[in-house]
Specification:
This protein is α+β, with helices and mostly antiparallel strands. The chain has five helices and 24 strands.
Length: 437
């Protein structure tokens, strides 16, 4: 009777842990950046090339910071209690900055401020999601890529809306739509030095195509040198004189691997030569040319492809091809959050699966010892019935509610099937050794 009581206590404890893990997994914030401290994924170089402007996370709160180009005198420029501030850009004269503010629904709104962060002004509403923005050469307008907030994150085919190019007048706040193509993707926004073209990348179904929007003609066209770039071209940036393009693409040695790696390359449009600049075996983003020095600053995702992404700011010398890292002199202090991080570590899908198998095993053991050998298969049989029910439900939900929800239930059914097979195997082994003994 004492052993029987111990089994009941173990079953009860495992059941409570399983229910608690499921509830916590469903209700917790699945944002990988909720406790993160480190650099964001974009930055800018001041026109006088003396400062970097970038976003930085502290305990999941993302704010805008500025530092000297050698990493000293790091200073907070703008922050928010409810939004994550990111994607900062300088105006051409360096007197103004812009940045995006992401709210709890992941909708970005566009802000402008003085270079020290004062006199902040919002230029778009939460009805428009802004993915990228850049100043005009006059500093009087801001060009941005946007899509209706109601259609943001919808899958292709679920909406007729998409991304387009817009311009907003800073003084009046009036916004004008420049394209009406509803692109599914539209990335890597920048402006030409003469202010006549706006550059961005479009995916045409086969390749990423560097595109130029002519502000004089109001038309899109293939950008200079686009046809000489690889089909998988990302994070491109033209040099100040327009003679070169820095871009990232998949390294040749990683094409046949399970993980693509993205390195930095330089295309000389005049000499028609392409040179590889990095061999970091990771992912390089956001290259920016120095005007007064033959250098390119960029960000390396040092823990690629894990989340949260940990970025390091680096500079490559185009003459020597040597790379050096920018070491910041000081960082904002971060909390440890050890208790919540520990719970997050254990309260996940793997933990739920392990607890579920243990619970089935405890039930099987209890039934085998205190009832009969045949009843020891009952927990696994019930689990199999639940698996079949979830699998059938996945098709119903996919057709009636949402295909993605159906896929999610299908993945759950697959996980349940794996746990059920383990439970059947355990019950068989238990009875085999029990009979042998």
């Amino acid at each position: 009777m004492k052993k029987k009581k111990i089994y009941m206590i173990l079953i009860s404890i495992t059941f409570l842990l399983l229910v608690g893990s499921i509830i916590f997994s469903l209700l917790r914030d699945h944002d990988p950046y909720r406790y993160f401290t480190g650099m964001g994924s974009s930055f800018d170089l001041s026109p006088d090339e003396e400062d970097y402007l970038f976003s930085y996370y502290t305990d999941g709160k993302e704010s805008i910071y500025r530092s000297n180009v050698d990493g000293t005198e790091m200073k907070k420029v703008a922050d928010s209690a409810s939004e994550r501030l990111h994607s900062p850009r300088y105006s051409i004269d360096g007197t103004k900055i812009l940045f995006l503010a992401k709210n709890a629904e992941s909708i970005n709104t566009l802000y402008i401020a003085d270079e020290n962060g004062s006199n902040q002004k919002i230029l778009t509403s939460d009805k428009m999601h802004v993915s990228e923005a850049v100043f005009s050469v006059t500093g009087e307008q801001i060009y941005f890529i946007g899509t209706p907030a109601a259609d943001f994150k919808k899958a292709e085919g679920e909406t007729t809306e998409g991304y387009d190019l817009f311009v907003v007048d800073i003084a009046s706040g009036k916004t004008e739509q420049l394209t009406n193509q509803d692109y599914f993707t539209m990335d890597f926004l920048s402006a030409s030095q003469d202010g006549k073209e706006i550059y961005y990348s479009l995916f045409d179904g086969n390749r990423e195509k560097v595109t130029a929007f002519s502000l004089e003609e109001g038309l899109e066209k293939e950008a200079q040198g686009s046809n000489r770039l690889p089909k998988d071209t990302y994070s491109f940036r033209y040099s100040p004189d327009g003679s070169k393009i820095a871009y990232t693409t998949i390294s040749e040695e990683s094409l046949d691997s399970s993980l693509f790696e993205y390195e930095l390359f330089l295309l000389d449009l005049e000499g028609r030569q392409t040179k590889r600049l990095t061999n970091l075996d990771s992912s390089v983003v956001s290259p920016i040319f120095f005007k007064g020095q033959n250098q390119i600053a960029f960000l390396e995702n040092t823990n690629w492809p894990a989340d949260p992404a940990e970025h390091a700011l680096k500079v490559v010398d185009l003459d020597t091809e040597k790379i050096h890292s920018i070491e910041f002199a000081s960082f904002p202090q971060a909390s440890s959050h050890w208790f919540m991080k520990t719970i997050d570590t254990f309260a996940n899908s793997v933990t739920v699966a392990v607890l579920y198998v243990i619970l089935l095993g405890l039930f099987s053991t209890y039934l085998s010892f205190y009832h009969s050998k045949k009843k020891s298969y009952l927990p696994a049989t019930v689990s199999l019935a639940i698996t079949v029910l979830v699998f059938i439900s996945s098709f119903v939900v996919a057709f009636v509610v949402d295909p993605w929800y159906g896929i999610g239930l299908g993945m759950l059914a697959a996980a349940l099937l794996g746990c059920t097979l383990v439970a059947f195997g355990y019950a068989f082994a238990l009875n085999f050794f029990k009979k042998k003994n």
